[in-house]
Each structure stands twice: as structure tokens, then as C-alpha cells.
Design brief:
Elements: H1 2-15, H2 17-37, H3 52-87, H4 94-116, H5 133-137, H6 145-178, H7 181-195, H8 197-201, H9 204-208, H10 213-222, H11 225-239, H12 242-259, H13 266-296
Length: about 300
């Protein structure tokens, strides 16, 4: 029986590596979350007393465990050597570091500053004198900007490391073998957003306010994540560096948290995310035009 299960797992992995990755990732992240909160009946959009830290760690464990496990099953020892080689590949042109680190802050601040011309509520939280909502959520001193920046920097690095071992370490190289940049990015971006769904649904009613969750959650998860994932894959294709993917993911998390406006409704958050997505899609289009010109030349 054990041999049969191993053979089935190996067969699934060889034929459908990306699908196998998604399944295992969701089982670990969603399954662990459901068990921790006490079963499916405890899944609610209302405020919950579930412990945040265990929920968070269980969720981010999915991509990491799945990516590392399938790297070994699919590629063996050679796969692990390649994974660590890409993780520590840092000797790449400086412009790629600049691109990876600056796309998130430039795009998110551009969207918020444009919106702040119409309403002060959209002023990025890091530049506001009030208590930052991220600081409040994590119990940090409300007015201590230095502590907040250091905290989100470390949190972003941790998120980038554990998540990208799977999304970029294992899945991205598979996708770009058979799909073009846009298709690969949209596919992975949608799965990335869907993976966030359950954890984002918990306690989301208050955040959404008067907006239906059927509208609110899709905008939250599928607006800026797919175009940003396209840009991540574009950077990875030019560098082959998993380290750069980790840093780019860390930059996204860091500046998303730092830019969070002090007081914002669900409707206003949707407007922000949609405009942010427009900015990112514009960058994708510009890159596509430039790359096509280079091919022609």
C-alpha cells in the first residue's frame, strides 16, 4: 500500500508538477488553518479570536514545504543543489536589483499620491502623523516610525523567503518552460491570490464595511497580484536568481504595509488597489513593448 501511494505520488508529480504543487500548498495552508480554528464551521468573515501568529505561520508554511518537498521528488539531489545555487545567486547587474526593489514602492506610492490629490484619506500611512494600522495590528508603538520600518523589513524578508521557495523556486521554472511571460504570470498570479483567499476571508467583514465580500475579496486578491507576479517572472527570466525574487517579494510586502493609509474604508481600499493594478499593468505593457522592439532589432 505504501509503495502504491509513493508510485502514485511520483506519477502525479512527474506528469503534473505545477498542479501537484498547488494541491499540496493549499492542503498545508488551508488545511492547517481550518484545523487550528476548530473546523470548517469556524470559518467566518466576522472578527475571530483565532491566534494570529500560528495562523500566519501555518499559512506561509504551505509554499515553502511544498516547494522544497517537490524539488526533491521531481529533481532529486541535483534539484536541491540548483535551488540553493539560485537562492544565493547575487552576482547580477545592479539594474536588476534596482528594478526588483523599486517597482513596488514606485507603483504603490504613485497610485496613493494620485488619489490623495482628490482625498487626503489616501495619504500613505508612513507619511501620516496618526497611528499606522499595521503598527496597531502587530502591537507596535503607534508613533515609532523607525520600529515600524524595521519590523516590516524583517517581516517582508521572511515572507519573501518562505513563499518564494515554492512560487519561484519550484513553480516558476516549470511554467516558463511551456508558457509565455503573460500567461505564466497570470496563471501563477491567480493561484497566488487564491492561496491568500481563506486567510484574507477570516475577519474580513469589518474591513470590507458596506461592500459585499463577493466584490471586495476578488479585488483584494486579483487586482495587483497577477501583474506584479508577471513582473516577478520577467525579472527572474533575466536573472535566474531566486534571491532577487525573495527581495522583490519582500519589497512588495514592506511597501504595501508602510503605505497603508491610516483610516480607509472598504470602498476606498478597492479604489486604491484597482489604481495600483492599473499602474502595474501599465509597466507590464511598457516592458512588453520594449522587449518586442529588442527582438525586432
Amino acid at each position: 500500500m505504501i509503495k502504491a501511494n509513493k508510485a502514485l505520488m511520483k506519477n502525479l508529480d512527474i506528469k503534473y508538477p505545477e498542479a501537484t504543487y498547488y494541491i499540496i500548498t493549499f492542503i498545508i495552508s488551508w488545511g492547517g488553518l481550518v484545523l487550528l480554528i476548530g473546523g470548517p464551521s469556524k470559518i467566518t468573515s466576522q472578527p475571530t479570536n483565532a491566534p494570529f501568529l500560528p495562523l500566519y505561520l501555518l499559512t506561509v508554511a504551505g509554499p515553502m514545504i511544498s516547494g522544497v518537498l517537490l524539488t526533491g521528488l521531481y529533481h532529486g539531489k541535483k534539484g536541491y543543489r540548483d535551488l540553493f545555487s539560485r537562492l544565493f545567486k547575487w552576482r547580477i547587474p545592479a539594474r536588476w536589483y534596482a528594478i526588483a526593489l523599486l517597482i513596488a514602492p514606485l507603483s504603490v506610492f504613485a497610485a496613493l499620491f494620485a488619489l490623495s490629490l482628490f482625498s487626503p484619506v489616501f495619504m500613505p500611512g508612513i507619511f501620516d502623523s496618526g497611528n499606522n494600522p499595521v503598527a496597531s495590528a502587530f502591537g507596535l508603538p503607534g508613533g515609532d516610525k523607525i520600529t515600524l520600518v524595521l519590523f516590516v523589513f524583517m517581516l517582508g524578508l521572511f515572507n519573501g523567503f518562505v513563499e518564494e521557495l515554492g512560487w519561484t523556486g519550484f513553480t516558476t521554472p516549470m511554467l516558463i518552460l511551456n508558457q509565455n511571460l503573460i500567461k505564466a504570470g497570470i496563471t501563477l498570479g491567480i493561484m497566488w491570490g487564491l492561496w491568500h483567499l481563506l486567510s484574507n476571508y477570516l475577519g474580513s467583514a469589518a474591513e470590507a464595511g458596506s461592500i459585499s465580500l463577493l466584490l471586495y475579496l476578488p479585488v483584494m486578491l486579483f487586482s495587483f497580484l497577477p501583474p506584479f507576479r508577471i513582473l516577478m517572472i520577467w525579472v527572474y527570466r533575466h536573472t535566474g536568481s531566486l534571491l532577487i525574487a525573495v527581495l522583490m517579494h519582500a519589497s512588495l510586502d514592506m511597501f504595501w504595509m508602510l503605505s497603508m493609509p491610516i483610516s480607509i474604508t472598504g470602498k476606498e481600499r478597492m479604489v486604491w488597489y484597482i489604481l495600483w493594478a492599473v499602474v502595474l499593468w501599465s509597466i507590464v505593457i511598457i516592458i512588453g513593448i520594449v522587449d518586442n522592439k529588442k527582438k525586432v532589432e
